[in-house]
Amino acid sequence: MTRVSAGSEFVERAAAVNPAAAAKTVRDPRLDFYRGLAMFIILVAHIPFNAWAGWIPARFGFSDATEIFVFCSGMASAIAFGGAFARRGWLLGTSRVLFRCWQVYWAHIGLFFFTAMMMAALDTYGTFGESYIDSLNLGRFFADPAPQIVGMFTLTYVPNYFDILPMYLVVLAMMPLVMALANVSLWAVAGGCLAVWAAANIGDVHLPAEPWSEREWFFNPFGWQLLFFTGFAFMRGWLPQPPVSKVLIWACAAFLVLSAPIGSWKVFTWVDAAWPVLGDSLRSVWEGLRLFGERTGFDLRDKTDFALLRYVHFLCLAYLAWVIAGVGGRNLLSTGEGLAGRVWQALLAVILKVGQQSLAVFVFSMAIARLLGFVLDQIGRSVGTFALVNLAGFCMIIAVAYIAAWFKSQPWKSKPR
């Protein structure tokens, strides 16, 4: 049986234009576009007390930009690493993945120490009337650094705010096992991923986040791997492309709209204010879901273990985004006419570039977000200052994307003119 990958149309197009290029990786503009959007949303979400964060996807449903990042990372990994397993075998494919894990590990370590240094500098040399070290709950790290440094390097100390990259690293490290299962059957892959997800959501399998408490990693990789490998499976062709169906479109849209009041306190507050009777009914649904989770140990909304409703919500959102983008992303790439078309093309180019350099942009944005929050503390929070700081942050991550792309191109290897 032939399996067609979600990105195969791009390979076919490249082969038709230039057969020599067919063997090279062809980027999917849909993947880069949505991953780029996620990077902007993640920056907004991590600037402390940022009014713009009230309008990110997380405020309107169960899933948020984290799901976009993880799902798209799975798809990108299928392109970047899946081919290595197919061409060079399991051992060299595994080596390729381990090298990426090594890069992500040191990105995590660097992000933590740079951010900790920045908070320490603000507390040491500033007279701002508050502790920026405590704002990230790093007081114990600075009070007793020796065991925390050991914990940081062994990933047994994972403070909140620094928990996405460790989750990503562990999920990446699971890829060789998934590829080994794929050699058995795709049913083995599905069964394995679902079993690990169930262990996280039902069996409470998790990793410890700090030695002095029972707190677990905020993003449990054993739960979130299901979303990562869903994206991976679509791009590898293990899962077929869903049909463009009006029934599916309306079903997904209905789920997103109807679930919003029980997936977001913001939407619930609006509904409760506009229609108190409906608000009372929805309040009982909120309470029912909470009690169900307490009684069964199976929380349907939990973010840490990537609960079921988050998965369904994101799949509905992803399906609509895929339909909107069109075949091969043609709706995104459509130039249009006049000034509006030129503006869209310029904006699209920027978003794609940010999506292509997502690791560098993500690490930078997580570091700079705290500094942008400090700037807001100094200049005050108003409509104008929020716009100034957020747009400045956008400009900075765009600059990082272009700089990272320039360095990756290794221009010093090109022949002089």
UniProtKB/TrEMBL annotation:
<keyword id="KW-1133">Transmembrane helix</keyword>
<feature type="transmembrane region" description="Helical">
    <location>
        <begin position="217"/>
        <end position="235"/>
    </location>
</feature>
<keyword id="KW-0812">Transmembrane</keyword>
<feature type="transmembrane region" description="Helical">
    <location>
        <begin position="311"/>
        <end position="333"/>
    </location>
</feature>
<dbReference type="Pfam" id="PF10129">
    <property type="entry name" value="OpgC_C"/>
</dbReference>
<feature type="transmembrane region" description="Helical">
    <location>
        <begin position="247"/>
        <end position="268"/>
    </location>
</feature>
<feature type="transmembrane region" description="Helical">
    <location>
        <begin position="37"/>
        <end position="56"/>
    </location>
</feature>
<dbReference type="InterPro" id="IPR014550">
    <property type="entry name" value="UCP028704_OpgC"/>
</dbReference>
<feature type="transmembrane region" description="Helical">
    <location>
        <begin position="345"/>
        <end position="372"/>
    </location>
</feature>
<feature type="transmembrane region" description="Helical">
    <location>
        <begin position="384"/>
        <end position="407"/>
    </location>
</feature>
<feature type="transmembrane region" description="Helical">
    <location>
        <begin position="68"/>
        <end position="85"/>
    </location>
</feature>
<protein>
    <recommendedName>
        <fullName>OpgC domain-containing protein</fullName>
    </recommendedName>
</protein>
<feature type="transmembrane region" description="Helical">
    <location>
        <begin position="145"/>
        <end position="162"/>
    </location>
</feature>
<feature type="transmembrane region" description="Helical">
    <location>
        <begin position="105"/>
        <end position="125"/>
    </location>
</feature>
<keyword id="KW-0472">Membrane</keyword>
<feature type="transmembrane region" description="Helical">
    <location>
        <begin position="169"/>
        <end position="197"/>
    </location>
</feature>
